Amino acid sequence: MTGRKVNDLGGLDGAAIDRHETPKTLFEQRVDALVMLLIHPEIGAFKVDALRRMVEQNSVEDYATLGYYQKWVRAVRDLLIEQEVLTSEEIRGKLVEVRARFAEGGSER
Length: 109
Known about the structure:
Cyclin A, domain 1; Elect_transpt_acc-like_dom_sf
């Protein structure tokens, strides 16, 4: 039998689960929309199972400290690289471009 995955918390003592719904932030809405587009059959960049696999590959520290949608963003990045949709260099280049635009007070587009 294999060891417990980082997301396998069944049977462990932990804090109570907060089941209250909270409104999604703009960031969360955008990440959710991005994932829904990428998994749509007409796009087919990856399957939802692949997203889950990538999230489960986080380190224990990352899994504990990253937010739900932050985990999704990392998983999307890793999957787009794995599926050769984008390269890590292309992603880094775009991040540099967007950060520079924000630093200048530009728009988010």
